[in-house]
Amino acid sequence: MELTTILFYLFSIVTIGAAAVMVFSKNIVHSAFALMFALIGVAALYVLLYADFLAATQLLVYVGGILILILFGVMLTSLGYTFNFRTITVNLVPATVLSTGAAVLLIFAFVTTEWKITEVAERPDTVYDLGMMLMGDYILPFIVAGVLLLIAIIGAILMSTRLSAENKGGT
Amino acid sequence: MTQYLLNINPIAILVHAAIPLTIILVYALVAIWAERKVAGFIQDRLGPMRVGGWHGWAQSIADLLKLIQKEDIIPADSSRFLFKFAPFMMFAASYAAFAVIPFSSSYIGSNINIGVFYLLAVTSVLTLSIIMAGWASNNKWSLLGGMRSAAQLVSYEVPTIATVLTVIVVTGSLNLMTITEMQSGNDILGFLPNWLIFQNPFLLVAFVIFFISILAESHRVPFDLPESESELVAGYQTEYSGMRWAMFMLAEYADMLLLSLLGATLFFGGWNSPFGEFMSGPFWSFFWFMLKGLLLVFVMMWIRWTLPRYRVDQLMYICWSILIPLSFINLVLVALWEVIF
Amino acid sequence: MVEAFKNSWITFKSIFIGMGITIRHFFGKSVTLQYPDERPVLPNNARAKLYVNIDDCIGCNLCARACPVNCIYIDTVPSTSDVDLGKTSTGNPKRFWLTRFDIDMAKCMYCDLCVHPCPTNCIYMVSEYEYSEFNRTNLIYHFSNLEPAMVAEVKEKAANEAAEKQRQREEMMRKKAEEAKMKQIEAKKQAEEKNDGEKGSEPSKKENGDS
Ligand code: SF4
Ligand code: SF4
Q1: 0.80 cut: is pTM over it?
Q2: What's chain C's Rg over C-alpha atoms?
Q3: C76: helix, coil or strand?
């Protein structure tokens, strides 16, 4: 077997295993850390596909940003770090229906899609091409996403200032 | 990157990987000793003097041997796997980041195109390992330290990245080797080396912001809140002992060196000799590079033994109200400068 | 805005001033003494181990009474008339045998208060400070130079002499009392001749009780 293949299977196992731990763990912080392993595994898979920029972004944004915020949020909520979750199904019937539906849809999509298979090849200049594409062909979605994020930030700031103003008024 | 890995035989890979590791290990031993010496000298003391004869040079080696022999204590209520794993992850993260540092004109671990970006991405895992250590210890000091470090690192990543971005705007490349090569030559005012810090005044501002944020990112005084001894015992390291604690120490010092070397690469011409062609070449370039990095490390130590620690709210205020706006304004100004000149 | 610039200017200025100070100290001379290799020269009035020049001690007990922690233990026996203990170097006559002069340096807090009251300047601090011990009792220093046999002898002698003196004194007392009685009786006889028997006995009883 080739080294790439071995690495691929290794990281796939890490990713899937970590994801499983994340879902079945009874402790929410353990889940969060399992999520970290899953995300890092995915980043490694990106590297194997020569998508180095994507891999680094995955690390920076998901592991370094979002996951830390998740952990932060979990730990700041009361009892967040000692609380054990009861992982039992609450709404048995609707949950079954929904998940079956989702599974059917996913499998259907997977089977019917015509997957384009290309040989992975190293590109000399991923970042350059990426930048050119973002600023050229895909400028509109790029800007729309940017505006969306801006709106989200402004909304968050507004909400937090209003909250603190209320707190000040109250006390 | 993978192609590169696959085409080289395993021994070469090992040697390649071992070079930064050796540098880190030797550096950590020297730096821990030097830190104590610097502290001593600044406080009119002598620092360690006994072990090994001349100025106690073997002190850190003796400490290391002691730490290796120590019992590995794991708190009963800790989360065992995470507790054991955290120090190694922390060291792995800072070690992995060394792959893209151009140590000399002819040696770089991995000459990938996204160098700086990769470095910043990998070091963000550091935060996570600190939270992991803090939470897994099941100790209030550790947890507080972990939380503080999370808040601190997430915040200070923004000005760091913004200032790195200013450099990238000037150089147009993410590859640290390319960035360094662009800074060779002595053209500014006829004699100054072409280092970015001399190239335009806004880059000087950028360097100041960058330096403040790397102080915060490597948890150095005045931003050492995650491990502030006087209030949090030792922060996230409180429950650690022996070898695992040594790993933390190593990772911390490695992180310090990493960020200093990054600063040296981005602003001080990396491995370029300050005298142009004089004293250049693979070995000398390594020497210059380490010299610049270690000088920055020394400044960090110097600051540590000069300034008191900030409060948490002051820390956040400095970051969000001063450094981040300033770094973004600075980014725009640098871009304008680049367009005009 | 201007305020912010001013503040940051002040911040940077103070940081650089501070760093200037520390770097000056960095290159300055260290004050460390490498202790076992180098030893400090103690000043003359340094407070360290106590020493008693027992030959000069007159056993006045002033030092023991001055000590706030009561760590000086002095037992004295008065010398008998047949021996002359001589004089101290300061000229004070010595009148006591010092059967015990112990200083418990484990308790001593080096306050120096015992040194100054001494009339003959024979208790003082010497610049020796390395006298740690494994056993605390070893820190009790014995300064008395009398042999146990000698101690017993002088004690016996002193006791004999004291007994002798006591006897003499009692004798004298009795004589005095008798004389006083006689005088009183005479005086009373002169003053009032009726009730002399009753009132004369009371004062004499009192005097006996006092002695
Ligand atoms: S120095 Fe002070 S404590 Fe010590 S023996 Fe003299 S009076 Fe007592
Ligand atoms: S004060 Fe001096 S003379 Fe008097 S008992 Fe003490 S040491 Fe002796």
Answers
A1: no
A2: 34
A3: strand
